Amino acid sequence: MNLPFADGMQHPTIARRAPAFLLLSAVLLFATPGFGQVPVGLPGSDADAAEASVPDAVAVDPSASDAAITRRLTRILDSTGWFREAEVAVDSGVVFLSGEAESELRRSWAGDLARQTEAVVAVVNRMEVPTRSPWDPALLRAELGGLLFGFQRAVPYLFFAAVILFLSALGARLAGSLTRRSLRQRIQTVLLLDLVARAVGLVVFLLGFYLVLRVSGLTRLAMTLIGGTGVAALVVGIAFRDIMENFLASLLISLRRPFSVGDVVEISGHTGVVQKVTTRGTLLMSFDGNHIQVPNATVYKSQIVNYTANPKRRMEFVVGIGYDDDLAAAQATA
Which residue of 113, 198, 236, 298 is surrounded by the most CB atoms within 10 Å? Predict the structure, then answer.
């Protein structure tokens, strides 16, 4: 009688998994689960679980003897190719299995198969699973094969990600340029205008990056990155408190505009002409020709004296005259 074989009776094949891709660095390519980790029939892999299904029952001749059960099970075990020196002995309906199995899953599969065979009372599974050395060349070949197969499957996604990231970068630059042109009349501060343009460009690039993650099957990673942005910002803010403080102060200075480039100001005891305002500090040039870098946090917290804001200015100074000069004429001249 012929037995309708289940899927587990076929030779092991490479299980399919969802591909994974992230083209920002080569490290992330192999760190991401999915690439280079495709099972190739290693012991205990998910491919074994997918193939090692056991039929509900193995039919034999109703009047089967122990010898018939032995022949039937022996043919099945030999046809799989999963066992070495597999031996089947049957005594009064009790099946004794011996030999070597590729993995513990294969060993359990053989025992379950024997239990499902008609006229079998009990099963004594004496099969052994050999312990492989970590220096076994077969394991190295299997792992390299998995990496190669994963890379081959990733090639289309690498190409797609490269195209999307390239278009995202172009779109980010275009969006930043359009933002500068459209807001140039509304935002007079160069620093604030540049920050707004960069923020718009960053949003466009992140949208393309998120699309790459979605198509590559890394939706969970994409959501994790989005959810972890706030936590990362908090950690960065704590670790680089001074840098963030100066950056935020530069934004507030750009919004309030207490001075402009070219104004003569006095900040924290330093007097000079404002050259530029960066995200870190305000650059002054003293009347001696020296550059003075004042942190923006200090600028925002300190008293600022702008000598150029008002074109009309009152000053007091002493003018010396000689004893022989006409005092009345000097007063009239002043």
Answer: 113
- DSSP strand pairing (291-295 vs 304-306): unpaired
pLDDT exceeds cutoff 70 at 14: no
Residues 249, 243: Cα–Cα separation, whole Å = 10
pLDDT greater at residue 125 or residue 317: 125
Integer Cα distance of 245 and 239 in angstroms: 11
Q: Which among 105, 103, 5 has a CA at the least distance from the CA of 52?
A: 105
Residue 15 has pLDDT above 70, yes or no: no
Give per-residue pLDDT as tens, 45-102.
444 444 555 555 555 554 468 889 999 999 999 998 888 888 999 988 899 999 988 8
CA distance 289 to 286: 5
Domain boundaries, the chain: 19-43+135-216, 248-306
- Return the half-sphere exposure (C-beta side, CA atoms, 13 A cut-off) of residue 279: 9
Report phi then psi at 254, rounded to 5.
-65, -35
Q: Which two tokens stand for residue 34?
A: 């999915």
pTM here is: 0.42
Element (H, E) at 281: strand 281-285
Within 10 angstroms of residue 132's Cβ, the number of other Cβ atoms is: 13
C-alpha–C-alpha distance, residues 80 and 72, integer Å: 13
Structure tokens at 279: 């995200």
Query: Using an 8 Å Cβ cutoff, are 171 and 165 in contact?
Result: no
Summarize pLDDT for 153-188 with one digit per residue, the tens: 878 888 888 898 899 999 999 998 998 888 888 877
Residue 185 DSSP SS3 = coil
Give start and end residues of each alpha helix (H) in the chain: 26-31, 46-51, 66-80, 104-115, 137-183, 190-215, 219-239, 241-256, 296-301, 327-333
CATH of region 248-306: 2.30.30.60
- Beta bridge pairs of residue 277: 282
Each residue's pLDDT tens digit, 200-230: 998 999 888 888 877 776 666 666 666 666 6
Q: State the DSSP code for 186.
A: T
